[in-house]
From TrEMBL:
<dbReference type="GO" id="GO:0003677">
    <property type="term" value="F:DNA binding"/>
</dbReference>
<dbReference type="InterPro" id="IPR036388">
    <property type="entry name" value="WH-like_DNA-bd_sf"/>
</dbReference>
<dbReference type="InterPro" id="IPR011991">
    <property type="entry name" value="ArsR-like_HTH"/>
</dbReference>
<feature type="domain" description="HTH arsR-type">
    <location>
        <begin position="7"/>
        <end position="103"/>
    </location>
</feature>
<keyword id="KW-0238">DNA-binding</keyword>
<keyword id="KW-0804">Transcription</keyword>
<dbReference type="Pfam" id="PF01022">
    <property type="entry name" value="HTH_5"/>
</dbReference>
<protein>
    <submittedName>
        <fullName>Helix-turn-helix domain-containing protein</fullName>
    </submittedName>
</protein>
<dbReference type="InterPro" id="IPR051081">
    <property type="entry name" value="HTH_MetalResp_TranReg"/>
</dbReference>
<dbReference type="GO" id="GO:0003700">
    <property type="term" value="F:DNA-binding transcription factor activity"/>
</dbReference>
<dbReference type="InterPro" id="IPR001845">
    <property type="entry name" value="HTH_ArsR_DNA-bd_dom"/>
</dbReference>
<dbReference type="InterPro" id="IPR036390">
    <property type="entry name" value="WH_DNA-bd_sf"/>
</dbReference>
<keyword id="KW-0805">Transcription regulation</keyword>
């Protein structure tokens, strides 16, 4: 059985919320990883933070409307929202290009 965790509808997603969610190096690295690999199991992320901190970052991204989070049995899966680009065309790509130039984000992206 699949269970989608609550996330905002398209008309509830705001630019400031998305930008705020993308303002952290760990969250940028999560988004960059998902952009590169597609849907990924929650436990497959290997960042230098504890599980509760990673869970917080995932919640911020989900509540901002950047990612989708679903449960399948005992596993949790995370993916980028495919419809975010229709709301803010090119935003995610532009942010990820710039994030790849930031040494702290680049280092985190290499750990996954």
């Amino acid at each position: 059985m699949h269970k989608q965790l609550p996330c905002p509808e398209m008309d509830e997603i705001g630019l400031t919320g998305v930008l705020c969610a993308l303002s952290d190096p760990i969250r940028l690295a999560i988004v960059a990883t998902l952009e590169k690999t597609g849907e990924r199991g929650w436990g497959e992320f290997d960042f230098p933070v504890g599980k509760s901190t990673l869970s917080h970052h995932m919640k911020v991204l989900r509540e901002a409307g950047v990612i989708l989070h679903r449960k399948e049995g005992t596993r949790c899966w995370v993916s980028l929202r495919s419809d975010l680009d229709s709301l803010f065309p090119g935003l995610l790509q532009s942010v990820l290009i710039l994030a790849a130039k930031d040494p702290s984000v680049r280092e985190l992206m290499q750990t996954t």
